[in-house]
Design brief:
Strand content: 5-15%
Radius of gyration: 35 Å
Strand order of the largest sheet: 6-5-4-7-8
Number of helices: 27
Number of strands: 8
Helix content: 40-55%
Oligomer: single chain
Length: 631
């Protein structure tokens, strides 16, 4: 017989292959334990903490059979002999008293650790936190049933019973319902809403449409919400897209509050807005329009050749581990920051700018690696060589493209990219950068500047005159205290823009009845006198005129300051114009918020999760995008 003793735990458990099952637990309890190779650690801890079996008591019982039974006490663990009696009674066919599974008693062990019970309330608290973690960290629903999570919880909370995927999905839906309620309340309180929309195809070739909403709340804080990212199984025609948007607006009960919809420049989506309502403004994404303008410039043959050569160099260091390691060593020797080279993307012109900027920054390190014949062969070095005049051309291109790159980043900020910024910023780009010629500047670059300036003027209608309809961007700029003086517009056009805003105020009284009464009472208390009453002065018209003139007389806010903070402190002074500003300044300059939804969706629908149902995709994207609202 083997000298190795049999573990005491097998008196109360049975083993089937690499799984062990506790005989003392009910069938409904989580009584399955892993025991590869016959290990008994987890099962032993279970018997000790759950059933109160002490290993010392078992050892003593095996050594001496005449040991006296210890006294029961409410604060002591369950006696081993009493347990054996109950098991024997059950085997003899006699029904034993149903053992009540009491809370785990805290008992000191040799290492000083404590084991505690996991109540239903605590289990539910853990499950809710787990659901939030899955949503925030973009984890799969199966994470709750993974071995790694079970092992982690066995250390953190040994008596926690993990819930199944369906249970986690139920809690995610509850979270989603709570967030939907919060968003609906905020949208109902808003006077008007700006929406952005775009379409995307997942890695599993499923098409999705997303809709986001943007408002300025009563505290003059810009807020954005993701409303939906649902599957669209029909063709992307204007009719089908309009149907999807109308259904989404109806679901959120915001159909009558939509002021503008921001989209890219695709014909099918720009034709959607008139089908929804002729009163809704159609706004083209400023970042996408800049992309199209820059693309016209990048088609130049000289730039195309330079981009190809830059891509070859980056590709060499991306595919050669030896070259990459040597580049890092050279960067360290030259005192440069260790940075990797960036590859360009055809659909993102700013990636071309970043690629060239990174190459110029690491020019010396790249040259040293290519000159080292132990690292780079002579034939390869000749293929990757960039001559001196080409480096100068790259530097000129970087200087030429930087203003566009910075402006694109400003437009793409989430909450501060109002449409009011578009015309002032583009005017500055043209006058301060594209129209300025530097000493010894390449003639090719000068031609490129002129081409880009013409494209920007055409796509953004910068050469507007007063005979045309006032643009939405011009109205928003006047209502923005940073640009209200309209310095970016031709002087002869100022009066036409101001007259249009007066017309909007008169046609669409932007104060609610109760607000009109309150505002009128305040003005009457301050300005009305007995003489004004006797002479029959129309105080309502007089007040609107004074408000407009006083707003014009306000000093223009510095462009680096927050216009919403300015309006927050002056809304009571200019209630009519302020109400109008709250509506028009909520319109975003780009549809980047919809693009961000698809970045999130791309992190969720990966190659390993390509079969994720559209319902779950919508749920997880919605929760992640609105995670700040989780409570």
């Amino acid at each position: 017989m083997s000298m190795r003793g049999k573990s005491w735990v097998w008196q109360y458990a049975k083993r089937i292959e690499n799984k062990a099952y506790c005989n003392l637990c009910d069938e409904d309890d989580n009584n399955e334990f892993s025991c590869p190779g016959g290990t008994t650690g987890s099962l032993g801890r279970h018997l000790t903490t759950i059933h109160g079996l002490m290993i010392n008591a078992v050892v003593n019982k095996e050594q001496t059979h005449d040991e006296q039974q210890p006294e029961n006490d409410s604060d002591e663990v369950m006696d081993i002999d009493e347990t054996n009696k109950e098991i024997n009674l059950e085997k003899n066919g006699r029904s034993r008293k149903r053992k009540r599974r009491t809370n785990i008693h805290y008992q000191n062990t040799n290492n000083g650790n404590n084991a505690r019970s996991c109540s239903k309330d605590r289990c539910e608290l853990i499950n809710k936190a787990l659901a939030k973690m899955i949503a925030v960290n973009q984890l799969p629903l199966s994470f709750c049933s993974s071995n790694g999570f079970h092992d982690f919880m066995s250390v953190v909370e040994p008596n926690y019973k993990p819930c199944k995927e369906e249970a986690i999905k139920t809690r995610l839906k509850i979270l989603s319902s709570n967030i939907e309620e919060l968003i609906k309340n905020d949208l109902q309180d808003a006077s008007s809403i700006c929406c952005t929309t775009d379409c995307w195809t997942s890695i599993s070739q499923e098409s999705y449409i997303t809709v986001t909403a943007h408002v300025i709340d009563s505290k003059w804080c810009a807020k954005s919400y993701t409303l939906t990212t649902h599957e669209m199984d029909k063709r992307h025609t204007a009719e089908n897209l309009s149907e999807q948007l109308i259904n989404t607006f109806g679901k959120w009960d915001i159909t009558n509050k939509i002021l503008a919809i921001v989209t890219d420049n695709a014909k099918n989506i720009t034709n959607v807005i008139p089908l929804i309502s002729p009163e809704i403004y159609s706004v083209k994404c400023a970042a996408h329009s800049l992309q199209l303008a820059v693309n016209c410039v990048l088609k130049n043959e000289n730039i195309v050749n330079i981009i190809k050569q830059c891509n070859k160099i980056v590709g060499h260091f991306k595919h050669s581990t030896l070259a990459k390691t040597s580049l890092e060593e050279k960067q360290e020797l030259l005192g440069l920051t260790k940075t990797t080279l960036l590859q360009s993307c055809k659909t993102r012109w700013n990636s071309i700018y970043l690629m060239m900027e990174r190459l110029v920054l690491n020019r010396c390190a790249i040259f040293n690696v290519l000159a080292d014949r132990t690292i780079t062969s002579q034939s390869m070095a000749q293929k990757l060589e960039i001559k001196e005049h080409e480096w100068l051309f790259i530097k000129s291109l970087i200087q030429f493209l930087k203003p566009i790159y910075v402006t694109t980043n400003i437009f793409c900020t989430e909450n501060n990219s109002s449409i009011s910024m578009i015309r002032p910023l583009l005017k500055q780009i043209i006058e301060k950068h594209l129209m300025q010629c530097h000493e010894n500047e390449d003639t090719i670059v000068q031609t490129l500047k002129q081409t880009l300036a013409s494209e920007i003027k055409r796509r953004f209608s910068l050469e507007w005159d007063s005979t045309e309809s006032v643009l939405l961007e011009q109205i928003a700029s006047f209502l923005d205290p940073r640009f209200k003086d309209l310095d970016h517009e031709v002087l002869s056009n100022h009066e036409a823009i101001r007259s249009k805003i007066k017309q909007i105020i008169n046609q669409n009284n932007y104060l609610e009845p109760n607000e009109i009464t309150t505002a009128s009472q305040e003005q009457q208390n301050k300005h009305r006198s007995d003489l004004e009453y006797i002479f029959g002065i129309n105080n309502e018209e007089n007040d609107l005129t004074k408000e407009f003139q006083n707003y014009l007389a306000e000093p223009q806010l510095r462009f680096t300051l927050d216009p919403l903070e300015w309006w927050k402190t002056r809304y009571s002074k200019y209630p009519t114009i302020g109400k109008l500003a709250k509506k028009y300044m909520a319109i975003t300059a780009t549809s980047v918020s919809a693009e961000r939804c698809f970045s999130t969706a791309g992190n969720i629908v990966t190659r390993k999760r390509a079969s994720l149902s559209p319902e779950n995709v919508n749920l997880l994207v919605f929760l992640h995008q609105n995670k700040r609202l989780m409570i």
